[in-house]
Design a protein that fits this description.
It is a single chain. By secondary structure, the protein is α+β, with helices and mostly antiparallel strands. It has 2 domains: 74 residues, Helix Hairpins (Orthogonal Bundle), CATH 1.10.287; 134 residues, Sandwich (Immunoglobulin-like). Helices cover 35% and strands 25% of the residues. The chain is built from 4 helices and 10 strands, in the order H-H-H-E-E-E-E-E-E-E-E-E-E-H. A hairpin with a 6-residue loop joins strand 2 and strand 3. Helix 1 runs antiparallel to helix 3. It is elongated and about 85 Å long.
């Protein structure tokens, strides 16, 4: 989860988020170098008292500042396209979960299990248990097995919502009448928090998403108890 006064991104909980963090660092390094070079040129041009006709009108300079930006854009575009492909890749998911957005809560259906469906509401502040997180904890968490490919099918029954888990690098719009899809793999156990990222009405900020990644044996015990009950 995000921390107070945090400057960087959240710790990655999936391979895709690790790739996104690496891409962020890669792009930021390029931007820093470009900004430093431009600042240096501006300072030199403003402070100098000399002019050079070979710089003001030079075919070599024109070629350099045309070719260099193209190379830089390619250096940014290729990693970006690779990550975009990886986010759409689906390799035989082990579990499919359908998330349905409402004003203002989520409904989850485990489509591989019969009768496994529940609503997930934000836990009110006055009902939080010790250790609970205000505005992020819910009464029914989405439990998923770690190190297993998960497919999320996301839609809405009223207005546009957005199902988002920053630590997984996942953000998918929930659009009425449309079924969007996302896949992810969690690499470690723990709680993963997110919030609706599309303004959807008065209680938009009270519509969190909470995932609990657990070992496969724990997940199987959890599903067995819910189906029996």
């Amino acid at each position: 989860m995000a921390q107070q006064a945090q400057l960087g991104l959240q710790d990655a909980a999936s391979p895709i988020m690790e790739e996104l963090i690496h891409f962020h660092d890669h792009t930021l390094t390029i931007l820093f170098l470009i900004s430093t070079l431009i600042l240096y040129l501006i300072v030199v041009m403003v402070t100098t008292k000399f002019t050079n006709k070979h710089i003001l009108d030079s075919q070599e300079v024109e070629i350099i500042w045309t070719v260099m930006p193209a190379i830089i854009l390619i250096m940014i575009a290729l990693p970006s396209l690779r990550i975009l492909y990886l986010t759409d890749e689906i390799n035989s998911p082990h579990l499919t979960i359908k998330a349905i957005g409402h004003q203002w809560y989520w409904t989850y259906e485990y489509t591989d299990y019969n009768q496994l469906e529940f609503d997930s509401y934000m836990t009110p502040t006055n009902e939080l248990q010790p250790g609970g997180i205000r505005l992020l904890d819910v009464d029914h968490r989405v439990v998923i097995p770690m190190e297993s490919p998960i497919r999320m099918l996301i839609t809405s029954e009223d207005v546009i919502h957005s199902w988002t888990i920053p630590a997984l690098g996942t953000k998918v719009d929930a659009v009425p009448g449309r079924l969007n899809q996302s896949t992810f793999i969690t690499t470690r156990p723990g709680l993963l928090f997110g919030q609706c990222s599309e303004i959807c009405g008065a209680n938009h900020s009270f519509m969190p998403t909470t995932l609990e990644a657990v070992p496969l044996s724990t997940f199987e015990n959890w599903t067995t108890k819910l189906v029996i009950s």
